[in-house]
Structures are given as structure tokens and as C-alpha cells.
Specification:
It is built from 4 helices and no strands. By secondary structure, it is mainly alpha-helical. The chain starts with 6 loop residues before the first helix and ends in an 8-residue tail after the last helix.
């Protein structure tokens, strides 16, 4: 009897493939942990990440704010582009 594909094949692999198609670079776990300054003394990924958890949350908040401002700028530009010239509003 055939087994059902697991989460990695049905979800994670597809996400990784799509991300790479749009230009993201796949980074191995060791490199990702090094970039995030994980504590190499930790026995598990959770223990290695504990020191940087707050920094990651701050990064996500900064990215969220930047994305919000970018979307607002796009919306303003779109509204400006769709607003008819003053002469034709009469």
C-alpha cells in the first residue's frame, strides 16, 4: 500500500521551490543559525535560538512597518493615478 506524502513534500518543498523561483536563496540550517547569531552551545534549535528570539521579533516588527508604509505609498500612487484631472471633474 502506498503511503501518503508527508508535510515536507506537500507543503514545505513547494514553498521552498516557489521562493527559489522568485529569487530567494535557500540557506542551510547551519548558515541560517550563524546569520541569526544563534548560541552554538544550545542542544536543540530552540535552545540555540533562545537568545535571538527577541531580535527576530524586532526584525519582523521593522519589516512589518516597512511593508505597511510601502503599501500605503502604493495606495496613494494608485489613488493619484486614478483621480481625474481638475478640469474634467466639473
Amino acid at each position: 500500500m502506498a503511503t501518503k506524502p508527508g508535510e515536507h513534500k506537500t507543503v514545505q518543498a513547494r514553498i521552498l521551490h516557489t521562493a527559489q523561483e522568485i529569487g530567494c536563496t535557500y540557506v542551510l540550517r547551519d548558515e541560517a543559525e550563524r546569520r541569526r547569531s544563534f548560541d552554538p552551545a544550545g542542544a536543540t534549535p530552540e535552545e540555540r535560538a533562545r537568545k535571538t528570539r527577541d531580535a527576530v521579533i524586532r526584525d519582523l516588527e521593522i519589516i512589518g512597518e516597512a511593508a505597511k508604509h510601502h503599501l500605503l505609498r502604493i495606495a496613494r500612487n494608485l489613488a493619484t493615478a486614478l483621480t481625474p484631472p481638475a478640469a474634467s471633474r466639473r
